[in-house]
Amino acid sequence: MHQDVEQILVTEEELNKIAHRLAAQITKDYEGKKLLLIGVLKGSIYFFTDLSRYIDLPCNIDFIQASSYGSGTVSSGNINIIKDVADDLTGFDVLLVEDILDTGNTLKYIHDMLSKRNPESIGVVTLLDKPARRIADIKADYVGTDVPDAFVVGYGLDYDQYYRNLPYIGVLKKSIYEK
Q1: Inside any domain, residue 174
Q2: Which of 1, 54, 124, 169 sits between 20 and 30 A of 13, alpha carbons compared?
Q3: Is the predicted pLDDT of residue 73 greater than 70, yes or no?
Q4: CATH number at residue 79
Q5: Do residues 39 and 48 touch, judged by C-beta distance below 8 A?
Q6: DSSP letters of 132-175?
Q7: Is 112 a catalytic site residue?
Q8: What pTM was estimated for this model as a whole?
Q9: Residue 169 phi/psi, 5° resolution?
Q10: Region of residue 109 (phi > 0: left; psi between -120 and 50: alpha; otherwise: beta)
């Protein structure tokens, strides 16, 4: 365990099982559909990669990047689209792939924006759900696991762009971000 991590919440083995479980359900639910996976960058990159490899269907992939954090631990509330999807969404069953559903503000913004682009449907899969902090009226169709109201890092999730490469989900020590 990294010295800046207080405890591991989801192990590497558990992450692999979650990705397999969700991929199996998505494969079943999207059979015969024109699936477009859209990864929400940067945080979803590891989960997106694992999940997409385990989905046993032909699918298109794209990415969107939005920011509402800057370098802090609390969302600023201002959502900026840094990279938009390149694909036309008409006729696609879109599945947004998110690392963590926290306040839901960013995901709701992205969901509403993409809904205006004529997809057949838009669903959401999130690795982690933190319902204690939910503000926006949005729910995930597929959830890997719930996490407590703590600042988590690893497997794509970061603090100030660090810790994304940890192979597990861990709680960051408060002494790191409360300086």
Answers
A1: no
A2: 124
A3: no
A4: 3.40.50.2020
A5: yes
A6: GG--SS---SEEEEE--SS-EEBTTB-BTTBSTT-SSEEEEPHH
A7: no
A8: 0.92
A9: -100, 125
A10: alpha
